[in-house]
Amino acid sequence: MSAHRGRGRAVGALLLLALASKAAAVTSYKKDDEIPLWANKIGPFSNPTETYQYVTLPFCMPADLKYKLEDLGEVLEGDRLVDTPYVIKYQVNVDNQVLCKKSLSMEDLEAFRNAVRQDFYFQMYYDDLPVWGFIGKMEKVKGAIKLYLFTHFHFELSHNGDNVIEINVSSDPMRTVDITTPTTLDVTFSYSVKWKHTAVTADHRMDRYSRYSFLPQHLEIHWFSIINSCVTVLLLTGFLATILLRVLKNDFLKYTRDDEMGEDSEETGWKYLHGDVFRSPPHVNLFSAMMGVGTQMLFIAMCIFGIALLGAFYPYNRGGLLSSCVVLYALTASIAGYVSGRYYKMLGGNTWVSNVLLTSSLFCGPVLVVFSYLNTVAIFYRSTAALPFGTIVIIVFLWALITFPLTVLGGIMAKNSKATVSPPCRTTKLPREVPHLPWYRTMLPQMMMAGFLPFSAIYIELYYIFASIWGHKVYTIYSILFIVFIILIVVTAFITVALTYFQLAVEDHRWWWRSFFCGGATGLFVFGYCFYYYFARSDMSGLMQTSFYFGYNAVVCYAFLLMLGSVGFRASHLFVSHIYKAIKCE
Q: For residues 377 and 160, what is the distance between their CA atoms, to the nearest angstrom?
């Protein structure tokens, strides 16, 4: 066991070291050292996923294009860094340097017009510092829309000692060309560079991106809103907990008094179900697989929070979060296999091969379907969001050589495990008939009630997360997010336990699946919020952006359903086992 823990710590340390290496690596330069300016991607400002290679538009480019080698996370994020003809040397000012002279054809001008109409931006990197700018602008002149292309960019850079600290780019509004109607046009592109000294050290050069994520007054409002939401949810949770504990106390007193008096009165309430409450649910294989994958998702989420709180995900760490998710999913596959196998064994399953196969494909299968469609759309659009064939092969090999074998290993460990779980009550051969219940006690209304309270705890934070993922905001306050996540887990567990008790109290013993789906119902609420954000809070449009937005959000909400479903069932199982151990069951 100690060796296994040691390997786990080693894997975690190596992952954290790999993620933090970029943040720690700050290159030192001497005066006149040439530092390459890499162009990353372009795209409509309102559609953050719809990105294209910089070379798609007829900008000035070197004769021999050189692409920067990207890691897995950078490719998944759609980064494609290519060198540019800009010559920016360390601490060397440049004034009105001609970049190139181009004769734009009708096709070139039409490409620029479409880009300006869609408010295209570009992203570049200089010494791993990101910088953004716009390609052109639209103006209304005498009732007509004019399209202008920026031809001059001014780079302002800051340095401290031997390190680059900051870079900004601006366009000269007086140096533009009208591209509204011409069929051909001769354009001269130019740039200028201005260096200045700053007191900011290299260790804090990324802090400015964190500050831009929230203005001080907005951060105060953010904290106040989160605290207000959490206090409200905790008060409601405490109120329901008090009621539930008092009801349980009365039940225990009643059942104990009946047992002591030896009365043969007919049993009622949840005690009446002692012969059915631990009966295996239908579709044992699927239930076990969902519990295994849900537990894996919870473990991945906790690891991601741990890495984030240690500062590995600094702003614009290209692909850091996606790399972590992919690597952690591969390395934690044994958790899914083991947990699924344990439940499958506990519930009397015997087709172990089907259990392992279902566990390994329960999450990867839907992801594969969604990815296949989205990648096809991205290829049609010629977007950088389309994964290259080589990257797809790497991911397939990662699943085949690491994820699947670890899932099988976890299943084998569970099958050979000698640990047993004995329910506190014997299960009868024939199940009792469930009485007719009103509509509001059926599964769907119960799921709606179960999902609303946890969703209200994370509702405020969701906007900031969506604005970061599907916009151009930067999210850096992981401490708040972790607090909200813990509250989400606690509230989900409690509300599921409460609904499970109310279900047993009306003599309905079918609590296994219901507790899982009631716990995971928050995922459905989050998916509903996706529609609200898309139509009311964003300007996203187009087939590609819409497909990526709803496709990947559906995958995340599915993972949420599995994760919180496993939390809800575990809490309910502990609760049910505890109350039936406390009474005398015949």
A: 45
